[in-house]
Amino acid sequence: MPDDARQPQQTREPAVRGQPAVDPAVWTGADMTVRDDWVYTLTADDLAALRETAAAIRRRIGDDPNGLLDIDTAAADLGEFAAPMSEIVHQLRDGRGFQLIRGMPVAEWDRLDLAIAYWVIGGQIGEPLSNNPEGDMIGHVTDLGKDYENPNHRGYQTSAHMLFHTDQCDVVSLLCLQTAKSGGRSKIVSAPAVHNEMIARRPDLVEELTADMYWTKHGETMPGEYPWYRMAVVNYHEGYLTVAGGYKHIEKGHALPGNPPLTAAQKEAFALLAELNEELHLSMSFEVGDIQLLNSHVTMHSRTSYEDWPEPEKRRRLWRLWLRNPDIRPRPEAFEHRTRGIIAPDAHPRIVL
């Protein structure tokens, strides 16, 4: 593969079907391991500004986190943190497509103040979406003993190794509250870089991924809806490349009654995709107080399996925000299914900490 198709790029050119993408979101794990510009460590001034903002909001909502649902956090005064946050949003939308914020005071702050600050940070990026059929606007990523192979279960409710995928939102945010006893490393990969490498090796398999496939809804449906939706993995739209990762979603979707099985060529394409994800990914530790932000149109993520603590109060737990922002990237109409959150009969917005 030409070196310039794998190297970090500062400009974007219109994406052309069957051609390597020229995009600032093209990078490799090897590139990022020798750089640290993707990590932003909160300063004392940043934390003071966030604390002040949280205090002001708490005076309005009291001790009920659900009061956040009625607060316009996009208009919050971030003080010293405004400029760094603006650059973070720029990197998510027009740059590398991911950012790690380090240093949220999980142990030092009251849990509600922490949630308010986290909600405010998310509000600078987009509109929060429901994470599950219960309507949780701050999702809890923790092992609930679910089965990763079950079409109605989601991987974040297990401790299993998760395949590379993208979430059902424009930007996903994860705040680490507690780590596992061992394992649970985060892995991310540039979807445009993987696309470019596939173009170089097997352009015919890239073409296989441009066809619509069946994606399971994990049983999270409204009455009368199909238990699946159709969408391609590789999409070219308005001059932008957008990739939707989620082999497990697709495997489960094609296994639903009445849907066709995946073809041999499609399975071969997914096998190469998985190989390149591992080849090009960036692995990182996920420490208490870290916030990981990912543009879901250009960054796929995974997690290694983990062993949790036996004590329930010590078990691995992340807070998750799914954020919607149509300005993040032009997207095909089919992506409406991927950027609306979970819509289900009992999905009434709520915040449970």
What does this structure look like?
It is a single chain. With 353 residues, the protein is of the alpha+beta class. It has one domain: Clavaminate synthase-like (Double-stranded beta-helix), CATH 3.60.130. The protein contains 8 helices and 17 strands. Strands 1, 2, 3, 4, 6, 14 and 17 form a 7-stranded mixed β-sheet that branches. Strands 5-15-8-13 form a 4-stranded antiparallel β-sheet. It is globular. The mean pLDDT is 92.
From the structure above, extract its key features.
seven-stranded mixed beta sheet, 353 residues, 26% helix, alpha+beta, Double-stranded beta-helix
Short description:
The protein is of the alpha+beta class and 353 residues long. The chain contains eight helices and 17 strands. Strand 11 and strand 12 form a beta hairpin.
> Based on DSSP secondary structure assignment, what is the total number of beta strands?
17
The H-and-E topology, N to C, reads as HEHHEHEEEEEEHHEEEEHHEEEEE
CATH architecture: 4-Layer Sandwich
Beta-strand content bin: 15-25%
Mean of residue pLDDT values: 92
Taking the alpha carbons of the first and last residues, their distance comes to: 47 Å
Question: Mind sketching the topology for me?
Answer:
Elements: H1 29-33, E1 39-41, H2 44-61, H3 82-94, E2 98-102, H4 111-123, E3 127-129, E4 139-141, E5 162-165, E6 171-178, E7 182-183, E8 186-190, H5 191-201, H6 203-208, E9 213-216, E10 228-231, E11 234-237, E12 240-243, H7 247-254, H8 264-280, E13 282-284, E14 291-295, E15 299-303, E16 306-307, E17 317-324
Parallel strand pairs: 1-2
Antiparallel strand pairs: 2-14, 3-17, 4-17, 5-15, 6-14, 6-17, 7-16, 8-13, 8-15, 9-10, 11-12
Helix pairs in contact: 2-4, 5-8
